Amino acid sequence: MSGAEEQEFAAFVAARGTSLLRVAYLTCGNEAEAEDLLQTALERTYRNWDRVRYANPEPYIRRVIVNTAISRARRRAILHIIPVHTPPESAAPETDIDLRRLLMDALRALPPRQRAVIVLRYWEDLGETQTAEILGCSVGTVKSQASKAMAKLRTALGDGTVEGVIRNVHA
After folding, report:
1. Do 49 and 1 form a contact (C-beta atoms < 8 A)?
2. What is the model's pTM?
3. Where do transmembrane segments lie in this chain (predicted)?
């Protein structure tokens, strides 16, 4: 890679790194693993920068993050059963911190592909078509995965509007 291409890559990482780290964290739910996911995605992008840089590289990196997170979750699931979180018995969280913690626990309990759909659709505000492109699936799959995930989140978070909770926590 030439010096100009390296500078272009560094500028891209400086501009979008925080947003991409957030996607990685929300996809896996663990800070250290999120940093590792992002590092893996950036490494792959760097190796393919001459091909990726002319298109918008951010969807490429998101796709690498999501696919890597799903692969790792599958490997872990084969090795052992991942415990499912049960929500606390209190009727409603008292603070935004409690709400964030409850939402993150509910997200962690989702299967990786459903979690990825929720992160991309609601946190990143991507459309169904964009989400389908990143995940390499059909729009119908995105819709069904989002529906199943939202049903699970509604069960975990109560009957309140999950979309509102997600947007309030995200804000």
Report:
1. yes
2. 0.62
3. none
